[in-house]
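To the wet lab folks,

You asked to see what we're planning to order before we commit. Fair enough. Below is the target structure as tokens, and below that is the sequence we designed to fit it. If anything looks off to you, flag it before the synthesis order goes out.
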């Protein structure tokens, strides 16, 4: 075995170690963010699915079936989420203008305010607060590239 082949094998081993470490770090960060997200939701009296619904509704009204798809829950569960949010005056249900059988969920002013307060607190406690502006831009670009490679966009 010549020296070049040995160096390629070593490089491949190092690349595999780096890949494994990146995956582990992403899992740890994801777990920590989920804990933070869930804990803050509890402070606001909401579970993570209810917070996900508020987040998705910030983009505009959504039919309940479409909202279920956006937040990754079964359509039978979205009614319970809508009921809970409506009981807290965070959303209202409105008949769709094109099909009265379809109910649109709409954020109330209180829903907009709670959502903004929640995400302000979330961002203030985010691990990205330890990064400077240049590092954040680089991380953002890398995460966008990775999201594109995964073929999945939760809120699209």
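Sequence we intend to order:
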């Amino acid at each position: 075995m010549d020296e070049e082949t040995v160096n390629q094998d070593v490089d491949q081993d190092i690349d595999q170690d780096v890949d494994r470490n990146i995956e582990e770090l992403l899992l740890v960060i994801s777990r920590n963010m989920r804990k933070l997200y869930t804990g803050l939701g509890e402070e606001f009296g909401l579970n993570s699915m209810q917070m996900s619904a508020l987040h998705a509704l910030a983009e505009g009204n959504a039919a309940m079936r479409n909202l279920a798809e956006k937040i990754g829950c079964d359509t039978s569960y979205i009614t319970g989420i809508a009921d809970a949010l409506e009981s807290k005056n965070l959303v209202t249900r409105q008949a769709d203008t094109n099909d009265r059988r379809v109910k649109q969920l709409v954020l109330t002013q209180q829903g907009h305010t709670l959502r903004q307060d929640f995400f302000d607190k979330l961002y203030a406690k985010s691990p990205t607060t330890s990064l400077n502006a240049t590092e954040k831009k680089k991380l953002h670009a890398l995460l966008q590239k990775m999201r594109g490679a995964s073929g999945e966009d939760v809120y699209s």
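Structural context that might help your review: The mean pLDDT is 87. Residues 3-43 form the longest helix (41 residues).

Thanks,
Computational group
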